[in-house]
Amino acid sequence: MTQPGTETGPETGTAGGSAEGGAEPIRVLLADDENLVRSALRALMQLEDDLDVVAEAASGAEALAMARTHRPDVAVLDLQMPDMDGIAVAEALHQELPSCRTVIVTSHGRPGYLKRALSVGVRGFLPKTVSAGVLADVVRTLHAGGRYVDPELAAEAIGAGDSPLTARESDVLELAAEGAPVEEIAERAALTPGTVRNYLSSATAKLGAANRHEAVHVARRHGWI
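RESULT FIELD:
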């Protein structure tokens, strides 16, 4: 696995790089519902001469609105946001603004998330434990047309195998893992209670589990949620 800034592509960034020859800086959108994290990222990225944070967002819906207005080159998206996750935002951006590259940063690096992210066009996937310098280099790599996936997360995804669950089954089972009742899961997932029960039943059967609690355990053991 290559390191950030060394992926093949039309160009590659250099660590601590600067906008050369009067080139326009890379326009970056930051989306994270934690204000402190987002502010710290902005401050650190603004130290890079070739990066310009043009917009910030605290939710998925706000991230989409900011992206439509500011047309960033790269969107740095937190995986977990209150209204929609970063992967759903990335999928919408891929359809609406295909020139905008997306990178997911997460403290929940389960293999299922990585596979789902790659399937919707995400080009970068990183744990929140990376340094600001690594993140800056990944932004440069994506802008130059490359990709970057954290090596440890990639290895875990390969070892986990393919999940038998659909994306919706995974989402509902993830919500069920928090112990929420069906009615609450339905509200949070924008589904009817009957549809939620169907998804939970299907997921439980696919995983060979006796009930949804066992299904959660099996899915988490394999890194599918």
